[in-house]
Amino acid sequence: MSTPPLAASGMAPGPFAGPQAQQAAREVNTASLCRIGQETVQDIVYRTMEIFQLLRNMQLPNGVTYHTGTYQDRLTKLQDHLRQLSILFRKLRLVYDKCNENCGGMDPIPVEKLKQKNQQLKQIMDQLRNLIWDINAMLAMRN
User: Fold this and answer.
1) Tens digits of per-residue pLDDT, 77-128?
2) Tens digits of per-residue pLDDT, 48-64?
3) Counting runs of H as helices and runs of E as strands, what totals does the chain give?
4) Is residue 79 within 8 Å of 31, Cβ to Cβ?
5) Is residue 100 a contact partner of residue 38, using CB atoms and an 8 Å limit?
């Protein structure tokens, strides 16, 4: 089976779907960017932990003989981790700037207002739950 083309279904493709679809795509992109930002922060923390692990395991050249090859390997790994950490910070900055750009016209919602909305939603869900329970009880009494 094949799916009919978009034109045949009466729906316009992607960017021509109207302002609501464009707004939804923008929100999805912002949400995706936030997820990417979160993953990048996790990568930064992981890399930083690896750097500290490498530093802890490195011996300081304090007159004790050490293997130059081992020291060079560890130094190379450390420099590589620092380079990758720098790249991750630049990536995080780009994500941050893009999120701010996407959310530039939006007013932040105060925390108190969010708590109030959450409370209202909880009350509605409790009312719906009670209504469903009452309907089930009435149906059970009929049978």
Assistant:
1) 999 999 999 999 999 999 999 888 888 777 777 888 889 999 999 999 999 9
2) 999 998 888 776 666 66
3) 4, 0
4) no
5) no
Sequence ranges of the domains in the chain: 24-59+67-141
Residues listed for the chain: 143
88's CB contacts (< 8 A; 6+ apart) are 40, 43, 44, 47
Statement: the pTM of the whole predicted model exceeds 0.90: no
Residue 67's H or E segment, with its range, is: none
47 closest CA partner among 1, 6, 87, 75:
87
Q: What span, in angstroms and rounded, lies between the C-alpha atoms of 8 and 14?
A: 15
- Rounded to whole angstroms, the Cα distance separating 99 from 28 reads 11
Local structure of 87: helix, strand or coil: helix
